Amino acid sequence: MKNTIIDVSQLELNDKVVAIKRVTKTVKGGRNMRFTALVVVGDGNGHVGAGLGKAVEIPEAIRKGKEDAMKHIITVALDENHSITHDFIGKYGSASVLLKRAAAGTGIIAGGPARNVCELAGIKNIRTKCLGSNNKQNVVLATIEGLRQLKTPEEVARNRGKSVEEILG
C-alpha cells in the first residue's frame, strides 16, 4: 500500500493554498522579488499531497505548487468513522504534529496548516497538536509524514503473522 503508484489523472483533486510568502533577494541593481506558495491537494477520500511553488507572480507560484503537490500524493489509512487508525507523531525538521484518533462526531480539531491537510485527506474526526516549530511549511510536511506512516490493522496483522482480531483485542 505504501509503495503503490497513484494515478493522479483519475482522482478528483481539490487544492488549498496554505501560505504565500514574498521572498526578496538583494542583487547589484536592487531587490528581486519572488513569491513562494505552499499548496495542499487532496481528493477527500484518503489521498493528499503538498507542494511548494516559486515564481515571480503569485498565480504562477500557486500553479507550480499544485503541480509539485500532485507529484507527492500519499494514501492515508482511515478507519470506519473517517478517523485515523491509531495515534502517531509526525516529524519534519523541528516541527512535530501529534495526530490522535477521535470518535465519530468530534470533527477536526486542528490548527490552520494541519487542518487543511486533514480536510483534503478526507479525515472527518481527528485531534492534532503542533509540537515544536509552528512554521507552516514544516507543520504541513510533518502532518503528511505522520499520515503516511499510519498502518491499517490488516497491515500490522500481516507483518506480525497474526489475525486482525488478535491485533484489535
Walk me through the structure.
This protein has 169 residues and is α+β, with helices and mostly antiparallel strands. It is built from 5 helices and 8 strands; from the N terminus they run E-E-E-H-E-E-E-E-H-E-H-H-H. The protein has helices spanning 58-71, 112-121, 136-148, 153-160, 164-168, and strands spanning 14-27, 30-42, 47-55, 74-75, 88-92, 95-101, 108-109, 126-132. A 4-stranded antiparallel sheet has the order 1-2-3-4. A hairpin with a 2-residue loop joins strand 1 and strand 2 (30-42). The longest helix is centred in the middle third of the chain and has 14 residues, at 58-71.
Looking at this protein, list some descriptive labels:
169 residues; alpha+beta; four-stranded antiparallel β-sheet; four-stranded mixed β-sheet; 5 helices; elongated
Q: How many separate helices?
A: 5
Which range best describes the helical content: under 10%, 10-25%, 25-40%, 40-55%, 55-70% or over 70%?
A: 25-40%
Give the oligomeric state of the chains in this entry, treating copies of one chain as homo and distinct chains as hetero.
Answer: single chain
The total of beta strands comes to 8
Largest sheet: 4 strands, antiparallel
Instruction: Give the ordered list of helices and strands.
Output: EEEHEEEEHEHHH
> What order do the strands of the largest sheet run in, or round the barrel if closed?
1-2-3-4
Gyration radius, in Å? 18 Å
What low-confidence regions span 5 or more consecutive residues with pLDDT below 50? none
Query: Could you say which structural class the secondary elements and strand pairing correspond to?
Result: alpha+beta
Report how far the terminal alpha carbons are from each other. 24 Å
Instruction: Name the overall outline.
Output: elongated
In terms of DSSP E residues, the strand content is 25-35%
Summarize model confidence as the mean pLDDT: 92
